[in-house]
Design a protein that fits this description.
The complex is a heterodimer of chains A (about 375) and B (about 500). Chain A has about 375 residues and is mainly alpha-helical. Chain A has 16 helices and four strands. In chain A, α5 runs antiparallel to α6, α7 runs parallel beside α11 and α15 runs antiparallel to α16. By secondary structure, chain B is an alpha/beta fold. Chain B has two domains: about 150 residues, Periplasmic binding protein-like II (D-Maltodextrin-Binding Protein, domain 2), CATH 3.40.190.10; about 260 residues, D-Maltodextrin-Binding Protein, domain 2 (3-Layer(aba) Sandwich), CATH 3.40.190.10. Classes of the chains: A mainly alpha (about 375), B alpha/beta (about 500). At the A-B interface, β1 and α15 of A face α3, α18 and α19 of B.
Chain lengths: ~375, ~500
């Protein structure tokens, strides 16, 4: 049988390979490689800008920077930078001062431990649970339990939060206030009220300003003695009150600035979500005689839940990196009261404790990853699934 | 045609003449085409005179001066990373001479000993010996040119002290008494209650120098070579004893008589507070003296007095760690039973040159620093408050006319210069810490602990432990012998 291949030559050592076949082979090879070639710049960029710094910073967290004649060197110190944070001289700065637990704290911790234990056991008794899933639940329970224990002991009387807990306070309280404030404003401007177009623009303005600018503005606004509102504070008898000298006063001012800056982000996304809900559902609710509250709670709220979940996730990841406001407003003070993890790392870096700075940055990365994964698994997927 | 020819000839002659004139002019501008990048901190102080005098220097030499500024808290690290990474974007630096050790050891700073010797215009001998031999030098070689003289002093409102029948404070207990007496009184006639004492206590600013101004007299009594930071023999920190506890108590107590936001005040705020007449006392470098005569900002012109840092009638017995009363043995340098220990905090802004800069740029950078320090410029700049430069040349102390011409009364000038000279001449002067990575000891560990103490986050005992443990950890990390040797070497300076 005379095949097409025989007609064109074999391409074997027995005979010459026709040019046309070579061309086709090359073209096919180039076709096969093209996808890699097109991907290569992006991959290289990713490796260069993300993977390499990530790996190199692991190395940095294991070394100490030293000046030596002729330049500098990195001395390998193993886990000493992490030990310094957990058990060494930076412990109080990073973890805070742990108060002796009062009976109420023990009771609260017991309840939380029981809930976490129940969570792990429930996962185990479920027939479908795989070993990695069970291990994941156990790890989650362990880390969550430790963090809750740390929060309880540092935020109660006699304790003092370190940069780790302070960051969590900024994130959880800040996001809660930002979300509800943003939702309220979005709901109001989605109604047919006079001036709503104007307020939509006004509410967005803080998001357009650079964070350092906002921090400086708040520094002036929050100065009760020489700020623009001094006459008002004097009239209220508050001119001699110092928020900057009080740890919680300073933290609250930082959070107010953060809320002012990020509520517009919540506002604009939630406004889009509110305006994109199907009108038929709202009209049906109206026809059925539902009140405004019932319409919001039963119709609108479930509609915007997936957006809410994503919004909270994005803000949470972003919120953990807060630095501009505490840095400009208080320089992390009074004491270390307003220091976030990023500011803690920045101050260490600024003083050439590069290894210590990298260790704090990795602690932050671990925390953000843990929080984001927990949130995705425990909240986000359920909400998305419910829809 | 003939007319055109004449015109052409005239043009030719004119061109030749202009060229003839401009060639020598160009050769008298030896650094034409050179740009010197000078890094210092965000002013207006320090950067202002450099920027103001840059154009005049350009006209003289042709070199363009480009002043780059960064926040004070970033300056140390910015200089070091620029040098250590080989970026070398800056050719000269105006910085704290106490950081010099970290720049000289790796070989980043240009040794300017020979340049200074060959430079008659700088009038090196006119610079006070302390600034020449300590601030500008390291290991017997000269690395920086002093542009500023720094001693901390106490300023008081002379009119208010007269009004209330008070005397300028001689001891820190006196300071507290005067502050208490002036607190909540209207000191500037605006009908509002003002403050007894204003000190820059903000974290990440100048607070860690302020505490040592208080502690110095309690910790050091046997002369400069005794040192006020570490024990010279064991290199144990002097931060966990009755004297340092007392210093922390006094420093904390001054907050009671300060403005409500004092913990968030840096020197810019405390100076503004003093200039607007809101503060009865302040602890600062020489700047308040000259800022007070600026008619644009000051409401206290000729109402300001200055004294050497208050002292103590009790000092540390290093053997027992307890406080003992001053006598001829325990306080050989005491005046009237009071041990004074003026603190040469910071050491005065000084200009250094990047060794890796191109040769011509280094020449231009040196010429600029020399120009800034020469009496023709410096003796004017030290009388202007905004410059941040304080007197450091003998001629500046001797010539009262300079100060009177700047707007100070003769009595105020004598008082102001007298306080600085008393500090400069003290045999018990406290030298600022100049050991490798001193910035970590002071700007990180000490500053953080003091900030936490002032914010009532920790007690005095906890603060002392935190500072001691932190300092020991840095010492152990960097090597006790090396640090101890550097400390002894710094204290052994001949003044």
């Amino acid at each position: 049988m005379l095949t097409d291949r025989k007609l064109r030559g074999t391409g074997s050592p027995n005979g010459p390979v026709p040019l046309s076949f070579l061309g086709q082979g090359l073209a096919a090879w180039v076709d096969r490689q093209a996808r890699f070639l097109f991907l290569l710049p992006a991959v290289l960029l990713l490796i260069l800008l993300s993977i390499f710094p990530l790996i190199f910073s692991v190395y940095l967290s294991l070394v100490r920077f030293q000046l030596v004649p002729g330049g500098f060197r990195f001395r390998f110190v193993g886990l000493a930078n992490y030990r310094k944070l957990i058990t060494g001289i930076e412990r109080e700065h990073f973890l805070g001062l742990l108060a002796s637990p009062a009976p109420l704290i023990w009771a609260l911790a017991g309840v939380i431990a029981a809930v976490l234990l129940l969570f792990v056991i429930r996962g185990m008794v479920r027939g479908r649970s795989t070993l990695p899933a069970m291990a994941g639940r156990a790890v989650f329970a362990l880390i969550a339990g430790t963090l809750v224990w740390l929060i309880l002991r540092t935020l109660t009387s006699g304790g003092r939060p370190g940069s780790l807990v302070t960051t969590m306070v900024y994130v959880f309280i800040g996001i809660t206030v930002q979300y509800w404030l943003g939702l309220t404003l979005a709901y109001l401007t989605s109604q047919h009220l006079p001036g709503r177009r104007f307020f939509r623009v006004v509410f967005l303005l803080p998001m357009m300003i650079t964070p350092v600018g906002i921090a400086y503005m708040f520094r002036i606004l929050a100065n009760l003695g020489i700020g623009p509102f001094t006459p008002l504070w004097e009239a209220l008898g508050l001119a001699e009150v110092s928020w900057a000298s009080d740890p919680w006063g300073a933290r609250i001012v930082v959070m107010i600035g953060d809320v002012w800056q990020w509520t517009p982000f919540m506002f604009v996304v939630l406004l889009a979500a509110l305006e994109s809900q199907p009108l038929e559902l709202l009209e049906a609710a109206m026809v059925d005689g539902a009140s405004r509250w019932q319409t919001f709670w039963r119709v609108t709220w479930p509609q915007i839940l997936p957006v809410t979940s994503t919004l909270v996730l994005i803000r949470m990841i972003e919120g953990f990196k807060i630095i501009d406001l505490p840095n400009v407003l208080t320089n992390g003070g009074p004491g270390t009261a307003t220091e976030s993890l990023t500011l803690h790392a920045f101050i260490a870096w600024r003083t050439l404790d590069i290894g210590g700075s990298a260790a704090v940055a990795y602690a932050l990365l671990f925390l953000v990853t843990f929080m984001a994964l927990s949130y995705i698994n425990l909240v986000h997927r359920r909400l998305a699934g419910a829809m | 045609m003939r007319r055109q020819l004449r015109l052409s000839l005239a043009l030719l002659v004119a061109t030749v003449l202009v060229s003839a004139v401009s060639v020598p002019a160009a050769s008298s501008r030896p650094f034409a085409g050179v740009t010197v990048n000078v890094l210092t901190f965000t002013g207006p102080q320090i950067a202002e005179p450099l920027q103001r005098r840059g154009p005049a220097f350009t006209r003289l030499t042709g070199a363009r001066i480009n002043v780059v500024t960064v926040p004070f808290s970033d300056l140390y690290q910015k200089i070091l990373t620029d040098l250590a990474t080989g970026t070398n974007s800056y050719h000269a630096f105006v910085f704290a001479p106490q950081w010099m050790v970290d720049y000289v050891t790796p070989g980043y700073l240009e040794d300017i000993t020979m340049r200074v010797s060959a430079d008659r215009n700088i009038q090196w001998a006119d610079i006070a010996p302390f600034f020449r031999n300590f601030s500008a030098s390291f290991g017997g070689r000269v690395y920086t040119i002093p542009l500023d003289g720094d001693f901390q002093m106490v300023y008081y409102r002379s009119d208010q002290l007269r009004r209330f029948g008070l005397q300028p404070p001689q001891t820190w207990e006196d300071y507290l008494r005067v502050a208490q007496a002036l607190h909540r009184k209207d000191l500037n006639g605006d009908g509002r209650a003002d403050f007894g004492s204003c000190i820059a206590k903000k974290r990440g600013a100048q607070s860690y120098w302020m505490i040592w101004s208080v502690a110095g007299a309690l910790l050091q009594s046997q002369g400069t070579n005794q040192g006020a930071f570490f024990d010279v023999d064991s290199f144990a920190p002097l931060t966990n004893n009755a004297a340092f506890a007392e210093a922390l108590r006094i420093y904390t107590e001054t907050t009671r008589y300060g403005p409500p936001d004092e913990l968030n005040w840096d020197v810019g705020d405390s100076r503004a507070g003093f200039m607007t007449g809101r503060c009865g006392l302040s602890l600062d470098w020489g700047d308040i003296g000259t800022l007070a005569i600026d008619p644009k900002t000051s409401k206290v012109k000729n109402k300001v007095g200055a004294v050497i840092l208050p002292g103590s009638r009790r000092v540390l017995d290093r053997r027992t760690g307890q406080l003992v009363a001053c006598n001829s043995t325990t306080c050989p340098h005491a005046t009237g039973g009071v041990n004074h220990a003026p603190f040469a905090a910071f050491g005065g802004w000084s200009g250094g040159i990047n060794k890796a800069a191109p040769a011509r740029v280094k020449d231009a950078a040196y010429a600029f620093m020399s120009y800034m320090s020469q009496p023709a410029q410096a003796n004017v700049d030290v009388t202007i408050g905004i410059t941040g430069f304080n007197p450091y040349r003998r001629s500046q102390f001797q010539n009262t006319n300079l100060w009177v011409k700047a707007g100070m009364s003769a009595a105020a000038a004598r008082n102001y210069l007298g306080a600085i000279e008393a500090s400069l001449g003290s045999p018990n002067m406290v030298l600022d810490l100049r050991i490798p990575q001193n910035q970590r000891y002071q700007q990180v560990v000490l500053d953080t602990a003091i900030a936490k103490l002032l914010a009532k986050q920790i007690t005095i005992e906890q603060a002392m432990k935190e500072i001691t443990d932190g300092w020991e950890a840095i010492t152990n990390e960097l090597g006790r012998d090396q640090q101890s040797q550097a400390y002894r070497s710094a204290l052994g300076v001949k003044r």
